[in-house]
Write a structure and sequence with these properties.
The chain is an all-alpha fold. Helix content is 76%, strand content 0%. The chain is flat, with a radius of gyration of 33 Å.
Length: 306
């Protein structure tokens, strides 16, 4: 009885064996402290190098006509300072995210089974990679052409004596614009990670994703219209890659589904083969009782003859 009880207790996750609530709270506090410490250190480092980070974000403006005459302005005494603080906080979140995600994983992982760990860990690793891929896609491909499109509304001074209109971006507005686009593209590139994870746990199937493609297109365009600035260029620049990622998620989910189906077929075939073996063994042993009875009859005949 005690052995069976011990076996039953060991069936659960290794980190979920009668751990008191106070121990969970202590573990949570420790993970939060490490996460806050990582964010604070990253914030200090990013603020020390805030000018270098800001110059990187402003670099796409060099693609505009007459880059030597471009400048950025701030119209409030505290605007530049708070802009750099917001930039440092934004950079700290990006830099410390792997550490924060690792602390979250260390808190959750002890309560998971081994198969659940192996299922979720690849997606946890792919999340920052896909976010960085979305940010790079925006920075190198979309943002330069987007700024050129917006700067095309300038009116130079030589145009028939008209009042010139020149693009001079404010620091906080430009930074908010770029940060919003980076966040939108980074989150959007997480779409295949989310869809493949839902298919992996059985909530969705690749067939359902393919059948609901028309509704997905409407949802993607609506999402792009909400999270991007109110212009058609930014919306299409986000909606088109999201649709490509949606199709890629279907292909990846189908690719991962085939090995699982083969494993299920092998698992179903094993009991069948196992059940035929005992039957064959039983069939081979069936004649033995007859042989034993014939031996008894021979002994009886021998006794009668005596």
């Amino acid at each position: 009885m005690s052995t069976a009880t011990a076996d039953d207790d060991n069936d659960g996750p290794p980190g979920d064996r009668k751990m008191p609530l106070i121990d969970h709270l202590i573990e949570l506090r420790q993970r939060l402290i490490w996460s806050a410490l990582a964010f604070f250190v990253a914030f200090v480092v990013c603020y020390v190098f805030h000018k270098q980070i800001f110059s990187i974000l402003v670099a796409p403006m060099n693609s505009l006509p007459h880059p030597e005459g471009r400048r950025m302005i701030f119209t409030a005494p505290t605007e530049a300072f708070f802009t750099y603080v917001k930039l440092a906080a934004w950079g700290a979140v990006c830099v410390s995210f792997p550490i924060i995600a690792g602390q979250l994983w260390k808190f959750v992982a002890p309560g998971l089974y081994q198969n659940e760990k192996s299922a979720f860990l690849p997606f946890l690793v792919a999340t920052p990679f896909m976010f960085a891929l979305g940010a790079a896609f925006l920075y190198f491909l979309i943002l330069p052409y987007g700024l050129q499109f917006f700067a095309s509304f300038e009116i130079p001074r030589e145009a028939g004596g008209a009042v010139p209109i020149q693009f001079e971006a404010k620091m906080n507005e430009y930074l908010s614009f770029v940060m919003a686009l980076i966040l939108a593209f980074g989150i959007s590139f997480e779409l295949p990670v989310l869809l493949v994870l839902l298919c992996r746990v059985g909530i969705l199937t690749p067939r359902q994703l393919a059948e609901k493609r028309r509704y997905a297109i409407v949802a993607l365009v609506t999402f792009a219209a909400i999270v991007t600035p109110p212009d058609v260029f930014s919306q299409l620049a986000l909606a088109i890659p999201m649709y490509v990622l949606y199709e890629a998620a279907i292909v990846i989910a189908r690719f991962l589904e085939k090995p699982e189906e083969e494993e299920d077929e092998d698992a179903a075939a094993e009991p069948a083969s196992g059940s035929t073996a005992p039957a064959a063994a039983a069939g081979a042993q069936a004649p033995k009782p007859a042989a034993a009875s014939s031996q008894v009859f021979e002994e009886n005949d021998f006794n009668l003859a005596r």
